[in-house]
Amino acid sequence: MQINSLDQIAAVSAKAVIPEQVVAYVTAVAESKAYLFDTCLGYIWERQLVLIGYPLDDPFDLRAVDHALALALETQGLQNISVIGPVRPEKTPLEAVIRKDNFFGLPLPAPPRPKLVSLLRRAARELSLVHGRSLEKDHLALVDYYLKKRDFKAGTRQIFANLAGYIEASKTSLVISARHADGRLAAFGVGEYASKHTAMFMFCFRDPEKAPPGSADLALSGLIEEAQKRGHIRMNLGLGINDGIRFFKRKWGAKPFLPCIEVSWEVAKPRLLSHLHDFFLR
Question: What is the phi/psi pair of residue 145, to 5°?
Fold first, then answer.
């Protein structure tokens, strides 16, 4: 069943435990269409299908994942399929490509650890937090800076290129900017609050020339405070990815709370190379 109406989008996103279950986010950055395969969300663009194998009623209902995959495989004209979930689905072919990570969760409320308190105080002496619902020129310039400096994969580049479109499309997203007294942008973070129970830490960018120590942490603290005000019980800080990112998340007290296993395989012979193969594991 295709998800079309705003009510459907809100109802599905309200059960999200990971960012990829926030419909407005994925449909904006991937220019895809969202579908429900029983209790699992899926996205289709061109001849690609990504099945989010965390059932909306129970993320660990493995039978529901296998049932949803069987339904998804009935889709006509598919070239490639990927499944993201806590385990490898039973019907995964032997030749499938497999990648593993973990989502890090922070239970709320989450007062900063003692080592963070002094860092946040130091950053707050130079910076103020500003809440917003859109990206301004300096936000976009900072994103562009990272696109030029870093060798990101194609999927990550597409996400960053469509970041402004996502924030515009999702009325439950929030931009928190850490700014100097003269207005200069030091860092900003993007949070997502569509889920009733799990807030999402989506992105964070720090200007290496303008940001004092603790700038990114200060932006994250603002997103966490917003989640606590809204009554969320957890903030999903995203995937571990590498040692540096894991360290940033662990110093806040976040721990792996949800395995993320992505399996991908060809359903039919490809007619062109998929430039979004690495889209979701950013």
Answer: -60, -45
Helices of type H across 127-270: 137-149, 154-161, 163-169, 215-229, 243-250
pLDDT in tens, 172-220: 999 999 999 999 999 999 999 999 999 999 999 999 999 999 999 999 9
Which of these, 171, 163, 174, 176, lies nearest to 221 by C-alpha position? 176
**By three-state DSSP, how is residue 132 classified?**
strand
Length of the chain in residues, anyone?
282
Q: Can you list the domains of the chain with their CATH numbers?
A: 6-102+259-266 (3.40.630), 105-257 (3.40.630.30)
Residue 229, Cβ neighbours under 10 Å: how many?
9
DSSP state for residue 20 in the 8-state scheme:
G
Q: Residue 172 and residue 227: Cα distance in Å, rounded?
A: 11
Burial class of residue 272 in the structure, from the number of CB atoms within 10 Å of its CB (0-12 exposed, 13-18 middle, 19+ buried): exposed
Neighbours of 278 (CB within 10 A): 18
The single residue listed with the structure tokens 């924030």 is 167
Report CA 180 to chain centroid distance, whole Å. 27
DSSP letter, residue 18: S
Nearest to 126 by CA among 170, 77, 172, 179: 179
pLDDT digits (tens, 9 = 90+) for 264-282: 999 875 443 344 444 444 4
Q: Are 232 and 193 in contact (CB under 8 A)?
A: yes
Amino acid identity at 40: C
Cis peptide bond upstream of 109, omega within 30? yes
Distance CA 69, CA 140 (A): 38
Note the pTM of the prediction, 2 decimals.
0.91
For residue 253, the one-letter residue type is: G
